[in-house]
Amino acid sequence: MMVDAPEEHLVEPNGSENDSNVAIINPDAMESDTLLATDHEAMKDLVLPPLADEPPILEDQVHTWTVKEWHNLSKKEHGPIFQAGGYPWRILLFPFGNGCDQASIYLEHGFDPEQVPDSWSCCVQFALVLWNPKDPSLYFHHTAHHRFTKEESDWGFTRFLELRKMFNAGWDNSERPIVEDDTANITAYVRIVEDETGVLWHSLNNYDSKKETGYVGLKNQGATCYLNSLLQSLYFTNAFRVAIYQIPTEHDDRMVNSAYALQRLFYQLQTSNQSVGTNELTKSFGWDSRQIFEQQDVQEFSRKLMEQMENKMKGTPHEKALPDIFSGKVKTYVSCINVEYESSRIEDFWDLQMNVSGNKNLLESFQDYVKLERMDGENRYSAGKHGLQDANKGVIFTSFPDVLHLQLKRFGYDYERDVPTKVNDRYEFPEEFDAGAYLSPDADKSESWEYQLHGVLVHTGDLNTGHYYAFLKPEKDGWWYKYDDDKVTKARKRDVLEENFGGPAKIPDTRNRGLAQKKPPLMRAHNAYMLVYMRKSRLDKILKPVTDDDIPSHLVTRLAEEVAQREARKKEREEQHLYLGVKVITEATFQQHGGTDLTAFDAPPEDPAAPRYYRVLRTATMKEIVATIAKDIDQDPKRVRVWIMVNRQNKTIRPDQPVMDLQPTVEETYSRAAAHRDQALRLWVEVAEEVDANGEAIWPTYQGQANGVVLKSDLILLFLKWFDVESQSLRGVGHLYISKEKKVEDLVPIIMKRMSWGDKLPSDEKIQLWEEIKPNMIEGLKAKMTLKTAELQDGDIICFQRMHERKSRLGLGESKSAEEANKNSDRYEDAREYYDFLIHKKLVSFRAHPGKCDATAYPEFDLELNSKISYDKLAEKVGERLQVIPTHLRFYTISASGMPRAPVKRTVNQSLHTILNPSGYGQINMNQRTNALFFEVLDMSLAELDTKKSIKVILLSEGITKEEQFDILVAKNGQVEDLIAGLIKKAKIASEEEGGRLRIYETNSHKFFRELARDYPVISINDYTTVVAERIPEEELEATESAQYISAFHFQGEPNRAHGMPFRFLIHEDEKFADTKKRLEKRTGLKGKSFEKIKFAVVRKQQYQKPQYLTDDDILWKVANEDDYLGLDHVSRARGNGGGDMFLKG
């Protein structure tokens, strides 16, 4: 039970959030003496002010309840039921307060609790007025609005009025109280309003977008609301969706393929019943958490996405699909007034940036866009043979696209205050407009150029924080919908238009409205920043319904399979409590096992040594489990019995005893088993070698009798493993039963028979026996010792090997030092050594360093190595595999993200284990992969490398358009001259005599830092700058020593968004910038449209100064000061440049 007050996000005109100017209504304030509570019409005007949402009014009702004997009322009272809007209502009163010292009064529906329809709702604005029946001029009221539902049946005011004020005489300077003679009236003014969208005042809890609208939203990953709004806009541009479906991805359906990820996203939006995630798409872009949790520039993202999708379509029949939808043409021209001369160029555009500041509406912005600039006086145009001429300079459109994206320039920079800012001015845009007025006279106007609004993308908030959502019209004549991340709701036309024009906020019409007018108006922080218009004559084409035939079949199949898999996993999870896993070791799996114990219970299912897994009902009996296992191994169930596997104190897992009673359930057997550390029942299965006349199994021990008694003989169950020295392998052989009184040497004939080695070994060979107590405790067995003395029991493992006498320098069962055991890491002569290797073996992946080694020459490979080997032994093993000199190998650890880290330093006590698992618990070490290394094949040994310094050099060619990075090794006592020589050799480029002189310079944050003299020591080169090499341009070679240069850099929009490769540029005295641009084009290597799109400016070194953009008639020599930069303003195409620009890969 709460007061529901309307809220609107307001900001002051300068953009800062502030609620101090909101008019505060003081309910204690007394109304005019002429206004009486009995004058319902006048009171209605007072207590039911216009709502900010302006919903249509369906019905007004007034109901008065006379409350008598107030002090005798119970804790909770209900007034009589009255009708409003066709529904029953009543007043709910807590006369002495609902948990407080004030009267609590509410409005609630009057349905019987059992009769409220599940989906019932009613939107109501209401006021509750408490007044004195004897003096109607004494009253007090509260107003609210609420969406009443079955769950929220009442709404009102817990703290309506303090009890002491109600009963005390002297209300508002009168001599009477409001409650006089223990009697008062409560009047409910109820206004039923129309819920046009179905979500008026809706909390949206448990809201089902698909059910209510037929559409689903997109989940917000953190700060991806801007992405969601644009993606929804593109999705509902049906022609674009079909074009994306037409990109061939059937042979490249990897998640790193952004086209395939976008296809998946669109298909899920089309078919899912719940909101869809964008994780797959952002991962395909190569984004990490930085991009996910930072709001990016929507226009930039849109352009890069379009460019990437267009590239995916190249070479296909649909390569023109996107330009046909989104690309128009604009002509930039200079036309002479007095002579027939015009210079012009036509460019493609994919969106338009419209000025908001200084314009009241979109049509004014278009007029501003095509406004002529007069070139006269000192600014006359150089018209070739016509000389300097008065001219008109401007732009005009030659065509508009079918889908017109208009970016409203709401974000800018206040150069007077030196701060970025958001423009919240009122700016209107029409539902329809005719773009033909902005076309050139010779444009094709045979078809109408009228456009209809189909999308409004909105930003709410200020420059630094905010939220994005979209209003979209999916169909030609249908409803508008609001797409706010995962919620989709219907929207009214005024929500789309008026509410997003920006400008001053509407203050609710109250008696205190004058208070709000004393200060500057509060500006709305929510307003449109992007508009989507569609050409009316092409609507049927653009919005043509997307059918099943448009969707790639492989996409449908793949996603259907994934849905089926998810449903299967979901069902499995839901039914998990009904089932128990059973892991079974068979003779076959044991014979494939090459490690310690009888198996590795966590081995992958495809491993032949992995235990067989059965998912069985917990209520199934052990008899049923034995039958299932017997069928699986093709045996008669009567000949099969299972042993419980238990954890021993030495952390091994061995059979303990057979399950004799098969009537208990699997769960009961699991519960009775000794302490287990597995969620599954673990069993070893035994197959009887003999049966009696009735086909019943005869077991060597634990034989069940007819009377139920189990006979335990002195036989013990042992398992045999063979260590094959020649193949350097260990494998299970099987099991046997033998009396405890037998000696160790009595095992030898059994082993000889099992292995088919005949009756006798050659005279120079012997069989050596070991007990595998636990992985790191392998003890030799003495031949004359009895098994009982050796303390062998059921489930113990005996390992044997054939050994030549001349190699067995240690007697049977004698120990060997750890140093000797690890002396030869390539070949292990006895089982103890091999077991030590098993403990320390590590499967390590080796990859060529991505920036220092050719992956095609050295493909990735894996090696199984002893983690105790030294750095030199590691290099020897890898060198043997790569067939390179081991001393010429350098290794690098790998970060958790797969990127190379610092090179591994070669030290005396270092081992493979310490390389992969550095000591310490720092975050850096935790983020390192422990099973992989990068390698680099060097041109010299590591010892020689220690005398060198590695310098990353970017070599420029074709102006500054082509960059190649090289790692150059230079002697630490060398100079830049040596660096240049090393670069020529490494890059295999022409010498300075043949190709021209080279220079080396440093850059920092995408700006020119300094040029390095050729005798500059390389040891002093800064590790935190970028080192660049280039051929010195011919014009600079010919320049005099007094020539002046300017540092040039690239930026996008604002100078602090620097990107690209900076350079030094020679400037000429008295040279007009039109001629300077020609030299710049040659200097940079940028040609055609790439160069034409660049705007040039002089950028002052002082931070936040506005760039001075240059015209063709400017003279750079005169405009620029000594410390100024030449700025090249254009969109960055580089990935993740210094300006923080967005990148898309995949």
From TrEMBL:
Q: Is Nucleus found in the keyword set?
A: yes
**Source taxon at top rank:** Eukaryota
UniProt lists the family membership as follows: Belongs to the peptidase C19 family.
An example Gene Ontology CC term for this record: nucleus
Location in the cell: Nucleus
List residues of the MATH domain: 60-190
SUPFAM superfamilies noted in UniProt: Cysteine proteinases (SSF54001), TRAF domain-like (SSF49599)
User: Basic and acidic residues bias: where?
Assistant: 1-11
How is this protein named in the record? ubiquitinyl hydrolase 1
GO molecular function ontology, one term from the record:
metal-dependent deubiquitinase activity
Under SMART domains, the record lists: MATH
Q: Which organism is it from?
A: Rhypophila decipiens
> Protease: present as a keyword of the record?
yes
Swiss-Prot/TrEMBL keywords: Hydrolase, Nucleus, Protease, Thiol protease, Ubl conjugation pathway
Q: EC number(s)? A: 3.4.19.12
